[in-house]
Automatic annotation (TrEMBL):
One of its GO terms (molecular function) is methyl salicylate esterase activity. Gene3D superfamilies: alpha/beta hydrolase. Residues 1-39, 87-112 are annotated as: Disordered. This is Methylesterase 11, chloroplastic isoform X1. SUPFAM superfamilies: alpha/beta-Hydrolases. The keyword Hydrolase applies. Residues 23-37, 90-99 have a biased composition (Polar residues).
């Protein structure tokens, strides 16, 4: 509104008759007397507020006249920049209203662009849930940092959230090349679950290679896990490794993953690789093809090598332990790292309780679709 007032207000001050009216109570005072100027100065503050109000009304009238002359608010008007965001279908009932840009005022946690109650049923009672504690497990090369939007949204809704850095990931100082087993890689997660009080349960969320990691933890601590949510993740069967899953030749799958992999041979070229680096020139197309540029920039300086030994290790999963935990899968249809065809192949091989599809999400939905992902996590917690 402030910008509209500035643009529509006259370039030179308009003389109003209001100060003269205020002087009518003293007709004996000369028009040019000093008393007149004193009175005008004393009322200038009040007149300023009234002038602003008049200018605002004038701006609104001119704006409406412009719309009527052009037949509709078609978007050609230079100030109507946010209508396509707020009213994508061009609702007629909104045409005569002044557009309000979301960027014209500072956002805060108490007034985000989309508030949690707009996404999630307000009637949710955390005390009625089996658990309100989410444990977020990142994928290969990522760290706890990748969940920063999800953490903020969940905590804003009253949930308890723990995001772990697996061994050699995020800010964990261990050298990735020294990781020789899946148990070593997952140790920060299993240590956390082991220290939970008896009877305390969590909802495990695994992304990418983190799916194999939460599966390993489900086999060890099924009684401490209420639900397991696989987000564009490796959901393996008994005796299968993550490498086995990625090696599947599924129709329509992308070769970007193979192109992006750069093997590290810390123990010499005659020995197996110790880690996998990802070519940063392909990173955006592989992992973040629908994500904001600032998140891609964060990832490009934060991603670390993926330990190779855990990717080779075959999982031992039993029906009596792993099989007793309720599983849910969130598909990412715009995924170039684990294509949707490969996701569906894993789902068909080991069907979870329910499958959700996150429309428009790339391999990193915590960046590309954070609010929609948040909504699904909360919905699953209520099932």
């Amino acid at each position: 509104m402030g910008n509209l007032c500035t643009c529509f207000s006259p370039k030179t001050p308009v003389k109003t008759k209001k100060p003269t009216k205020r002087l009518q109570g003293n007709p004996q005072t000369a028009p040019n007397s000093s008393n007149r100027w004193t009175r005008i100065r004393s009322t200038r503050k009040d007149n300023h507020d009234e002038l602003i109000h008049e200018q605002a009304l004038a701006a609104a009238i001119l704006f409406r006249q412009h719309q009527q002359q052009n037949g509709s608010a078609s978007g050609s008007f230079p100030f109507d920049r946010s209508v396509s965001l707020r009213y994508p279908n061009g609702s007629g009932s909104k045409k005569t209203q002044l557009p309000r840009s979301s960027s014209s005022r500072a956002r805060s946690l108490t007034h985000p662009l989309l508030q949690p109650h707009q996404l999630v049923n307000q009637d949710i009672k955390l005390d009625d849930l089996e658990t309100n504690h989410f444990v977020l497990v990142h994928g290969g090369g990522f760290g706890a940092w990748c969940w920063y939007k999800t953490i903020a949204l969940l905590e804003e809704g009253g949930f308890k959230v723990t995001a772990v850095d697996l061994t050699g990931s995020g800010i964990h100082s261990f050298d990735t090349n020294g990781i020789t087993s899946l148990s070593q890689y997952v140790k920060p997660l299993t240590d956390f679950l082991d220290k939970l009080a008896d009877g305390e349960k969590t909802i495990l969320v695994g992304h990418d290679f983190g799916g194999a990691c939460i599966s390993y933890a489900m086999e060890l601590f099924p009684y401490k896990i209420s639900k397991a949510i696989f987000v564009a993740a490796a959901m393996l069967t008994n005796g299968q490794s993550t490498l086995d899953m990625f090696s599947q030749k599924v129709a329509g799958s992308s070769d970007l993953m193979q192109q992006a992999q750069v093997f590290v041979y810390a123990n010499g070229n005659n020995n197996p690789p110790t880690a996998i680096n990802l070519d940063k020139s392909i990173l955006r197309d592989l992992l973040f093809n629908q994500s904001p540029g600032k998140d891609v920039a964060l990832a490009s300086v934060s991603i670390r090598p993926i330990p190779f030994a855990p990717v080779l290790e075959k999982l031992s999963l039993s029906d009596l332990k792993y099989g007793t935990v309720r599983r849910f899968y969130i598909e990412t249809p715009e995924d170039n790292a684990i294509p949707i065809t490969l996701q569906e192949s894993m789902i068909n091989s080991s069907p979870p309780e329910k499958v959700f599809r996150l429309k428009g999400a790339d391999h990193s939905p915590f960046f590309s679709k954070p609010q929609a992902l948040h909504k699904l996590l909360v919905e699953i917690s209520k099932i």
